[in-house]
Design a protein that fits this description.
The complex is a heterodimer of chains A (325) and B (564). By secondary structure, chain A is of the alpha/beta class. Chain A has 2 domains: 7-122 and 243-291, D-Maltodextrin-Binding Protein, domain 2 (3-Layer(aba) Sandwich), CATH 3.40.190; 124-240 and 298-322, D-Maltodextrin-Binding Protein, domain 2, CATH 3.40.190. In chain A, 41% of the residues lie in helices and 16% in strands. Chain A has 11 helices and 13 strands. In chain A, the strands form 2 sheets. In chain A, strands 6, 7, 8, 9, 10, 11 and 13 form a 7-stranded mixed beta sheet that branches. In chain A, strands 1, 2, 3, 4, 5 and 12 form a 6-stranded mixed beta sheet that branches. In chain A, strand 1 (25-29), helix 2 and strand 2 form a beta-alpha-beta unit. Chain B has a domain at 64-230 and 278-323: MetI-like (MetI-like fold, Orthogonal Bundle), CATH 1.10.3720. In chain B, 72% of the residues lie in helices and 0% in strands. Chain B is built from 23 helices and no strands. Chain B has helices spanning 15-43, 46-52, 54-87, 93-105, 108-118, 124-128, 144-168, 172-180, 185-214, 217-222, 231-240, 246-272, 295-322, 338-346, 348-381, 385-399, 402-413, 428-452, 456-464, 469-497, 501-506, 514-523, 527-551. In chain B, helix 5 (108-118) crosses helix 13 (295-322), helix 11 packs antiparallel against helix 12 and helix 14 (338-346) packs across helix 23. Chain B starts with 14 loop residues before the first helix and ends in a 13-residue tail after the last helix. The chains are: A alpha/beta (325), B mainly alpha (564). Chain A: InterPro entries: Ferric-bd (IPR026045). Chain A: This is Iron(III) ABC transporter, substrate-binding protein. Chain A: Residues 1-22 form the signal peptide. Chain A: It holds the Pfam family SBP_bac_6.
Chain lengths: 325, 564
């Protein structure tokens, strides 16, 4: 009997060892791990009584996880901090978000947040071209990537794995002179599209490919650490996402979630993003080292409502060109 | 002696229903739910969309090609090591065996990451040695051949262990008789040993093939960047683009993976049928073949293969964790411990992942043991059709790829449980239940074989003296099967600790496992952090194996898989 009792005790002990999620807030984010940790650490330094657990994955994957959880009746996340406004606009229209008017919004350009308070942009992330410094050609425009010198040497993130990549494709596809034909000639030139921005960075920095379409902060930051890469803002202009934050309607801790929104929009939170190498969305902030002055960056327009409407078709068009799943 | 004890009369009345209900929950329900969703997809006509998608057929093709080639590679390497380490007088067998089994214990995505760090223009190791390929060279491992090669490396120990078990029972007198009649070592090998080891080789090939078709970590890291999808990674990407049709689609995909695995096992069955491999005589043909001068050829070959399989990728992994940024060559000046610092002291996910993996593996191993002792008792005491059916139902989940079981459990628990209104999806409990289901067979096997060796007279005597079921269990059965129970716990713990395929689909906030954490770090572009965490995991595995090695003296034969 003693053995049974001790076995039962062991069983109970190991079951207790399984941690229940003790967090007050769960954040789903598409920031790279180190940045996500830094953001959460920054928030918890200001609000030591609120514990934040976070999950990182590409925007489409995070949303897929969330949708599956919602369908299962058990959404885990309280907050989203993900690549683009289009995705949050869709969630807003589906009634999945909570409206909250943050007092910090006064410091932001009206185009950067939802007037009803469903989501707020936190930073400006542009997509341009990175190249390995040992590459033969120094690209200056998007079209340079279709030149013979770049044959078989171009890589880009897939819109199926990255929210920024989707917006980039939708933006460039609307530019006269580029359009989907640009993506077709890239594919004919041997370009590949797979994975997220992290994969592009790895591939170009390591020299597997010479050129990549990628979000700005990754190569600029890696260059500062000594990686053999350069980032250029192409002459036609760049697409941009604004990594908005939003609260889910199903949150179990709305007060803490609102504090998180206020924090990332606050000057202190924005300073944190600046230190990580992002262009802050808040008015009157500096740009990080290695960036040109903010007004010199030419951001191509994207119509969020149009983009949202066309997303499924655009994904199909893209997959058709690159034969990805 | 069987027959004088009426079977079944010594069991408490609750035992049979308990085992039946457990098997219903862990095997029958999830698979039935998977089948239902698949059939519903069929009925709704959605099946045509799934079956007409070119991605499905290319994934099926890649799955089969990589698995077949991978199995052949693991056969070559596994057989070479099994023959040389079991039958010859080669030196350093214990050490060679320990290292050779190591790849099996290392999570597949760590293996993949290590090999990526070792080859191609990105390799910090090759850069440090100034022999990295030029700009624009493709990473050679991001290919069908790369996936197959790593399948081969990962699964060669499975072939080795399967074949070795057979070789250990070779009849010594047959070999000695041939020797006395003047047969050469080569004749002994080709006429006696090789034919008799065929069952082991075929079994090893089948296990390797089934493990290849279900592998997720290797094609996820090597295949996805090159747009090469196998069926398990296709299921994963379908979940990454969740739509209302996803559940139906993945049910159909899972059914196809299951069919390929079952086909592999059926081919094995077919190959072994109709042959009689029974041998009589003393077993234990140690050192049947003396290598003589050949030893000086084979010993370096084995060590060279091992260093290529293990040492080089491991050092590449360490180098990948030490470089400050991508593309920077590793020198004493550029070396930085930043990645280790970040992983150990800043990233919350590291601690979460270690705690989750270790507690999941511990809970799975211990809880399953309680169930398996009861189930094994029932299965070996009742020798009727019902118990045979139950035994094979327990076997099914582990013979299917993990991703199939993960999908089955998502479907089963996606909606809150009726009446209880508890949601398991998105919690750690769904991973735990899926682990119970998948590892049930692993846990049961050593315990059942221990029960088969028990003399029923002992327990019968206790029963006649009036001892109740629990009394007999605690005073007679448990002490006698304790070594096998220990083996079962250790085996399940080691495999569960490094699991990725199931948790890759089932994880959520706060429930990341080690496998998921490493995959995610690499996926976000932080391959330095992924490498650092992988190095820690490899060290953890080696420490656990060394602990087993230290304990081996006190454990029964056969518990520690790499020992003679």
């Amino acid at each position: 009997m003693k053995t049974i009792v001790s076995a039962a005790a062991l069983l109970a002990a190991s079951l207790l060892a399984i941690p229940a999620s003790a967090a007050n807030l769960v954040l789903y984010t598409s920031q790279p791990n180190e940045d996500a940790q830094a953001t959460v650490d920054g928030f918890m330094a200001v609000n030591p009584d609120i514990k934040v657990d976070w999950v990182r994955d590409g925007t489409p994957k995070i949303i897929a996880k969330l949708q599956a959880e919602i369908q299962a009746g058990n959404p885990v996340a309280d907050l989203l901090l993900i690549a683009d406004m289009v995705t949050l606009e869709r969630l807003k229209q589906e009634g999945k978000l909570l409206a909250y008017k943050s007092p910090e919004a006064a410091q932001y350009d009206a185009t950067l947040y939802d007037a009803d308070g469903y989501y707020y942009s936190t930073k400006l992330i542009t997509t341009g071209i990175m190249y390995n410094t040992s590459a033969g050609m120094k690209p200056a425009s998007w079209k340079d990537l279709t030149r013979p010198e770049a044959k078989g040497l171009v890589t880009m993130p897939s819109p199926l794995a990255s929210g920024a990549a989707l917006i980039d494709a939708q933006t460039l596809a609307a530019v006269p002179g580029l359009g989907w034909d640009f993506y077709k000639s890239l594919a004919e030139n041997g370009a590949i599209a797979a994975g997220g921005n992290g994969a592009v960075l790895k591939s170009v920095a390591s020299g597997e490919r010479a050129y990549g379409m990628v979000v700005d902060y990754l190569p600029i930051r890696e260059k500062a650490k000594g990686a053999p890469v350069e980032f250029v803002f192409p002459s036609e202009g760049v697409s941009a996402v604004t990594e908005p934050v939003g609260i889910l309607a199903s949150t179990r801790n709305a007060e803490a979630a609102k504090k998180f929104v206020d924090y990332v929009l606050s000057e202190r939170g924005q300073e944190g993003f600046l230190k990580l190498g992002y262009i802050p969305a808040r008015n009157g902030m500096k740009v990080p080292d290695g960036f040109p002055a903010r007004e010199t960056i030419r951001v191509l327009p994207v119509n969020a409502a149009e983009a949202l409407k066309n997303t499924d078709q655009d994904l199909k068009t893209f997959s058709g060109i690159y034969g990805s799943n | 002696m069987p027959g004088y004890v009426r079977t079944g009369n010594s069991q408490p009345p609750w035992l049979f229903p308990f085992v039946v209900i457990t098997v219903l929950i862990l095997s029958v329900l999830p698979l039935a739910r998977l089948a239902m969703v698949g059939i519903a997809a069929f009925a709704n006509g959605g099946i045509i969309d799934v079956l007409s998608a070119p991605s499905l057929w290319s994934a099926t093709y890649y799955t089969i090609v990589t698995s077949v080639v991978g199995t052949m590679i693991s056969l070559v390497i596994g057989c070479l090591f099994a023959f040389l380490l079991t039958l010859t007088d080669i030196r350093g067998k214990g050490l060679l065996s320990f290292f050779f089994v190591l790849p099996m214990m290392i999570p597949p995505q760590v293996t993949a990451l290590a090999w990526v760090q070792m080859s191609g223009p990105s390799s910090p190791l090759l850069k440090a040695l100034a022999i990295a390929p030029p700009l624009g060279s493709p990473q050679p491992l991001y290919s069908v051949g790369g996936i197959a090669l790593l399948y081969g490396v990962q699964h060669a120990p499975l072939v080795y262990l399967a074949l070795r078990a057979g070789l250990m029972t070779l009849p010594r007198d047959g070999v000695e008789a041939a020797r006395l009649s003047g047969a050469s070592s080569f004749r002994v090998f080709s006429d006696i040993i090789l034919p008799l080891s065929l069952p082991g080789i075929i079994a090893g090939a089948a296990i390797s093939f089934v493990s290849c078709t279900g592998n997720f970590g290797i094609p996820a890291i090597l295949g996805i960047p090159a747009s090469i999808f196998t069926l398990p990674t296709l299921v994963f990407t379908k979940f990454s683009a969740f739509t209302s049709r996803t559940f139906g689609d993945v049910a159909v995909l899972s059914a196809i993976i299951a069919m390929i695995s079952v086909a592999g096992l059926m081919i094995q069955d077919r190959a072994l049928r109709g042959r009689d491999y029974r041998v009589i005589g003393l077993s234990g043909a140690s050192a049947a073949v003396e290598l003589g001068a050949w030893r000086f050829l084979f010993t370096p070959i084995l060590w060279a293969i091992l260093s290529f399989m293990l040492a080089a990728p491991f050092f590449a992994l360490v180098a990948g964790a030490l470089v400050p940024a991508y593309g920077v060559p590793l020198t004493f000046k550029t070396m930085s411990l930043h990645a280790f610092e970040e992983i150990l002291f800043r990233q919350a996910v590291t601690r979460t992942a270690f705690v989750n993996s270790i507690s999941l593996a511990g809970a799975t191993a211990v809880c399953l043991l309680v169930v398996t002792v009861l189930a094994a008792y029932m299965l070996t005491r009742r020798k009727d059709a019902a118990s045979r059916i139950i035994a094979s139902l327990i076997e099914i989940p582990y013979s299917l790829p993990g991703i199939v079981m993960a999908v089955a459990f998502i479907l089963l628990f996606a909606a809150p449980i009726p009446f209880l209104h508890i949601s398991l999806y998105g919690t750690i409990w769904i991973i735990l239940i899926a682990y119970f289901s998948w590892f049930f067979a692993v846990s049961l096997k050593p315990v059942v074989s221990a029960f088969h060796q028990l003399d029923p007279a002992l327990e019968e005597a206790a029963r006649l003296s009036g001892a109740g079921f629990f009394r007999r269990l605690s005073d007679i059965i448990v002490p006698l099967i304790a070594p096998a129970a220990g083996a079962s716990v250790i085996l399940v713990f080691l495999i569960a600790c490094n699991e990725l395929t199931i948790s890759a689909l089932l994880w959520s906030a706060g429930t990341q496992t080690l496998g998921v954490a490493i995959y995610n770090l690499d996926d976000s572009g932080s391959s330095d952090l992924a490498s650092a965490l992988s190095v820690l995991v490899v060290l953890m595995v080696v420490i656990m194996m060394l602990l087993l090695e230290l304990l081996a003296k006190h454990l029964p034969k056969g518990v520690v898989p790499w020992r003679n």
